[in-house]
Amino acid sequence: MSQPTPINWAAIEADPRFQHLHRRKNRFLWSLMAFSLFYYFLLPLGSAYTPELFRQQVWGPLNVGLLFALSEFIVAWGVAVLYSRRANREFDVLAAEIVATYSPAKPSAGARHE
Predict the structure, then answer these.
(1) Residue 58 parent element (H or E)
(2) Buried b / exposed e across 6-21, counting CB within 10 Å, b at 16+?
(3) Averaged pLDDT, 42-67
(4) How far, in Å, CA of 93 to CA of 101, rounded?
(5) Phi, psi at residue 59, to the nearest 5°?
């Protein structure tokens, strides 16, 4: 069996494309995190400072507070979808370019391994 070629992680880390990818992804993830935390803490803050708003009946036993709490699930799924779309469209493309640069050459289809 052949041994896998070691990957030069230092060269990848020094690559300007990797640094650019890392900065963009980091900035995007921190933005999503800040939005998520802001939205999450709106529920306890809203119920503490505007309880009359959160008690308003919307339909049957549902009130604004309960609907807002349930909306956090929808927002979490929205954040996940937003991230996956952006990752597939931008981040994965840049990562594939970097991987292609630093991947060892693959043997051709007709080559034999010994």
Answers:
(1) strand 57-59
(2) eeeeeeeeeeeebeeb
(3) 91
(4) 13
(5) -160, 120
pLDDT at residue 109 tops 80:
no
Is the pLDDT at 28 greater than 70? The verdict is: yes
In this prediction the pTM is 0.74
Enumerate the domain spans of the chain.
15-102
Type of residue found at 76: A
Q: Which tokens go with 41?
A: 């803490």
59 bridge partner residues: 62
**Which one-letter DSSP state was computed for residue 103?**
S
Exposure letters 36-66 (e unless 16+ CB within 10 A, then b) = eeebeeeeeeebeeeeeebeeeeeeeebbbe
Q: Has residue 4 got a pLDDT over 90?
A: no
Q: What is the pLDDT of residues 55-86, one digit of tens each?
A: 888 898 889 999 999 999 999 999 999 999 99
> What residues are paired with 63 via a beta bridge?
57
| Whole-angstrom distance, CA of residue 19 vs CA of residue 110 | 37
